[in-house]
Amino acid sequence: MQIAQNLINRLTTRQSTIAIIGLGYVGLPLMLRFQNVGFKVLGIDIDIEKIDKLNAGETYISHIPAEQIAAARQAGFEATADFSRSAEADALIICVPTPLNKNREPDLSYVTGTVDALTPHLRHGQVLSLESTTYPGTTEEELLPRVVKTGLNVGENFFLVYSPEREDPGSKNFNPSNIPKVIGGHTPACLEVGTALYQGAIEQLVPVNSTKAAEMTKLLENIFRSVNIALVNELKILCLRMGIDLNEVIRAAATKPFGFMPFYPGPGLGGHCIPIDPFYLTSKAREYDISTLFIELAGEINTSMPYFVVQRVMEALNDHGKSLKGSKVLLMGMAYKKNVDDDRESPSYKLMELLQDKGAEVNYNDPHIPTLRPVRKYNYTMTSTPLTETTLAQADCILLATDHDAYDPTFILQHASLIVDTRDFFVGVKSGDVNKLYKA
Q1: For the chain, which residues make up each domain, given as ranges?
Q2: Does 1.10.132.30 match the CATH number of domain 2-209?
Q3: 309-327: pLDDT as tens digits
Q4: Which among 170, 289, 394, 424 could bridge 247 via Cys, Cβ 3.0 to 4.6 Å?
């Protein structure tokens, strides 16, 4: 196992070059972390615009300052679209998207396409780590055969691991260095090499016995959240009809020091994980003649929430003698969570579509997303409407979808004539007209 030991020595002494393939919300912070602890890092991406910005020391993710990119460049970081340069690296880390297709089935084309682009350049003494979220068995069924076909012997002269990304964009408490990292290897030697890869950059590693176990761990984390969010979303509808403030109930329940974890309702699920990852397991489960009823029911509830929100908008307008058709709706927040510029799978896009389909005139405001760009299912070309006294007053309804800290609830309440709040954003804020605020 001399090849493995030589690679481990190079990784532990940080003499290795790390290549990160996919420089998005996962890959870019990871690049910075490896660069900061002394590794030479090569970034590979097919997006030429990203490559040019990074090499110019610029950023395209709001919570990652350009100064950090410029410092990485000065320290030797380089971005490229040339996959042949992956041969320069001892470690290859894949951080590419794993979306669903239109039938909500796994789309592994980004992963398999990336591996196919890498395989002509693989060599002895490298470790390949997949971080993209996927179903249990992907590493063995999709990556392993492609590597073996090159003539490399996995576990002997080449090493294969799966280590799922854990990223909380915009978080002030968590970053790639202090989020515990799960890792599974195809063989014990693979795990040993993979551990050497990450241990210099991550404070805590959590080894598991196989790549399948690591893949399943990531899915369990997000299925847990999806199911519990679906529960509170369903309870929200019931509590509104019963005249109960569910958010108050959740806050009260959260005072229990054991046996309860708070989850909060919203207008639907967004982000690159929770709306997508559970369906990777439902698809795989069908191969074993298993129906994942909890997962699928949670998905149905969460997917239905934008429809419920639009119904609440219609009810609110009706109470004020207006129809949704022809009304001006200002949608506040296109990001899927507060204080980030990440709009992947954001329920705001579905809200916009449903409102427009019913004849509403829809504009949006988001301080973090000045312009809408094409996303997986939508192709809107709009710019953020300035949030002024006039724009608030001119809207027939303000629909608060994302509770950014940049929003001033008192200012909005003062100048808007009607507000539908999906995030309990206005709790505790006094309004002269209590009839202008609706919860959804």
Answers
A1: 2-209, 229-439
A2: no
A3: 999 999 999 999 999 999 9
A4: 424
